[in-house]
Amino acid sequence: xxxxxxxxxxxxxxxxxDKKPDAAAAAPLEEPPVASRHWFVELLLWPLRLYGMxxxxxxxxxxxxxxxxxxxxxxxxxDPWFNFRATQYLADNGVExxxxxxxxxxxxxLGRPVGTTIYPGMQLTSVAIWNALPSFGVEMSLNDxxxxxxxxxxVIATVFLGLLAYECSGSIDVGVISAGIFSIxxxxxxxxxxxxxxxxxxxxxAMLMTFYFWVRSVRGGNSWIxxxxxxxxxxxxxxxxGGYVFVVNMVALHAAVLSLTYVMRxxxxxxxxxxxxxxxxxxxxxxxxxxxxxxxxxxxxxQMLPLxxxxxxxxxxxxxxxxxxxxLSAKEVHVLRVQYFMAVGAVLAAIVSVLFPMxxxxxxxxxxxxxxxxxxxxxxxxxxxxxxxQPASEQAYWTYxxxxxxxxxxxxxxxxxxxxxxxxxMFFMLAYAVxxxxxxxxxxxxxxxxxxxxxxxxxxxxxxxxxxxVEAVFQPAAALERADAAKExxxxxxxxxxxxxxxxxxxxxxxxxxxxxxxWVYTEKVATEFxxxxxxxxxxxxxxxxxxxxxxxxxxxxxxxxxxxxxxWLRDNTPKDARVLAWWDYGYQIAGLANRTTIADGNxxxxxxxxxxxxxxxxxxxxxxxxxxxxxxYVLVWAGGRGDDMAKSPHMARIGTSV
Length: 659
Hints:
three-stranded parallel beta sheet; 28 helices
């Protein structure tokens, strides 16, 4: 690993008559990595690695194409229909009018200012691709582009997960294996199948881009400049999904812990300071230009950590500048840090005491509160009624991660043992894995965020075993010679362990451990079972819901299109200004397919409005009619099983009586 910029502030300032250190004392803190394989071994491995990445991208594409291959280019479920309708409006009217769009056909009679309440990253990307394709001689409808977006971004996410795993482990083999696992892991497929035109299909890719560029920027030396790309990726993440808050807090947490370790060691890492400063300034400025976000990064309690870390780093940098200019001793630096942080803390406390009573800082959202308190006490039955907001069970992890779930803890141990891993990046992966596991236990939806970590850690186990076997068989003599030289030079425990590690008996043990692991993989059919289950899950999650397959009494398979036909009937047989009352789940489809005005939809921004719907739909007929006749011309009821309104009626009643 390259040595970080900036000199350590250890001990007192150097005296003029100090002797010049000898060669041993002047040696770098970390020796350059020892070549552990012959060149011809690498020559043999590279074709396999390239094929492995090709296979991962191929699988990532084709496993997400089940829906398009079987049902055609059909937009899925509920939310994707709003996303498509917004994309169509953007394509027809341009960016300026899009941001000013007030939709009178939703949330009647209130309406919705769509341009300022939407994360438009996916729509902007889709329209940009749609406009660019004719230049390459490709003609696709906007609907088809939207259906393929999750597929394309699933492949890109696979590549960036491989890069992230490589950066964290230092092993190309780990990166390739991790990409292969992630390409088909159900935890990601559930939000990235063809036709599933939802924000997460783009946002997970943006998240992995941000994480990779961030850990690459703190490797050392001049890598800090990559912080620019990390900031731009965070901006794209903020454009695409509200989950950008998790991403920026994850990076801030990592930067804070790294910075704290340097402070405790009385050192300063200029690379870390530059990288985080670039990331935060570019990412935050970009986020504030997104209308739905605005100045939230500087006002929301959920985003105070990144701001505080940024301010703390600037204070530490000022102190480091003074240390160099005035050649301060370690004791003087410590006193200066205490003084500066007390002064800055007092100023911040005064600012908060003035702004907090004015309501400057926004409260935590119901979803965020649900991550830290008992779920049933979030206080919002609308949040509680959504199945994916419930805590994840053990079965959920097995369903969406399969063998990657039990292998992930072992991957954390292997990651710590990999000698080529970059410490800063390795620590990020460990922190990321622990954080997303905790959050996913509170909310099943966040298993989506845990998928990349599980794939990377499972890939670390498999790739680490490959490295263990190859290096045990093809270990060059220079490795043991370098270890012996290091032992003679410093006699440290680590140097002694290195000698044993490269010794002949340990080579046999390493090879035996690797062979035992691969024997378990073979006998338990781990790889084949994971592949089989992933494809079964991928196929099962590819059903559009608005269409589904069934069999006639004669046993013939047919596609049931009743739901779309009902919406088309509504479009063709009701006045254009007709208002349709239905439970909020169906609002997006009514507007997108039937082109009729709705009372509520999946935006769920107005709890009282939805509660009124719940009361109207679950009250006795006469009482319900007194409410409905003032709001709508028609009532749509979803019936026939498959999670219909009868199944949802307890939630409707609970929400209807909550206000």
